[in-house]
Write the structure tokens for this entry.
Amino acid sequence: MSSTTVRPVHTVQELREQVATWRVRGERIALVPTMGALHAGHMALVTAALAHAERVVVSIFVNPTQFAPTEDLSRYPRTLQADLEKAAMAGADLAFVPDVAEMYPAGFATTISLSGPALGLETDFRPTHFAGVATVVAKLLIQAEPDIAMFGEKDYQQLQVVTRMARDLDMPVRIIGVPTLRDPDGLALSSRNIYLSPQERNVAPVLYRALSAAASEITGGADVAASVARARQTVIAAGFELHYLDARHAETLAPIATPAEGPIRLLVAAQLGATRLIDNVAVPA
Ligand SMILES: Nc1ncnc2c1ncn2[C@@H]1O[C@H](COP(=O)(O)OP(=O)(O)OP(=O)(O)O)[C@@H](O)[C@H]1O
Ligand SMILES: CC(C)(CO)[C@@H](O)C(=O)[O-]
Ligand code: BAL
């Protein structure tokens, strides 16, 4: 039995033609940018998009410019046929699946330069990452001209970077963040979870547990720095190589020392064997 798949288009021109036919009918358009290997977290972005728009375009593009030469670009999972089926199941209307030459034609020479929420955290470990993300997201937004675009809170710094970029460049799009979908034991769904060995998979939920414990302590009045230090110890004791675990202002991502300074987000990145995991939680007021 053949499954239903969403229609893939591979060129900007085909994408624009399809979007234009929806636009003349007055239909609102949502873009869900992804790198494929779709899972339930991506499908939640499509579901959330359908609350705001009649039409949903999922882009599937493993963007080389956001990977450093030492990172996992070549082994990043690529599962196009299954992705097209999952996108259809979630209710998407079209998949935009450009190749590298379509996105970066010969002579491509433009990169978006960032500061504000792009400073620190991921940037300390992936210095060129957000320039690559921002540039490709800007291109996708210009190509699809959606009314809204959905981004997961799982990549919380990315969500703030893209929100800031869209505001700063007067892009006529609303950026919407979607809460992180988790496995029952708390591990955030991620395409990279397939890299985890069974033993590592058992340890991985420690990240969420450590962040959640720190968030509860801070909400209960504990000192922010002390709670963060305890969470760091928990993560290290579980066998992770900690990249960062920090308390930041939830919107600007500037360092923050007390809840009186604004809403707090706790963010972590840590390496477990060959797999780098990220996660974050809000600190309820
Ligand atoms: N568990 C999740 N819950 C909500 N959104 C998610 C989740 N996982 C990914 N997303 C969002 O889906 C979009 C596409 O992400 P991407 O294709 O990189 O998947 P990923 O699972 O985050 O992969 P990776 O392991 O490479 O980070 C991003 O906006 C991302 O934040
Ligand atoms: C937003 C994105 C699709 C840009 O390549 C990517 O960074 C991702 O999947 O989160
Ligand atoms: N979801 C973020 C994409 C990346 O890590 O490159």
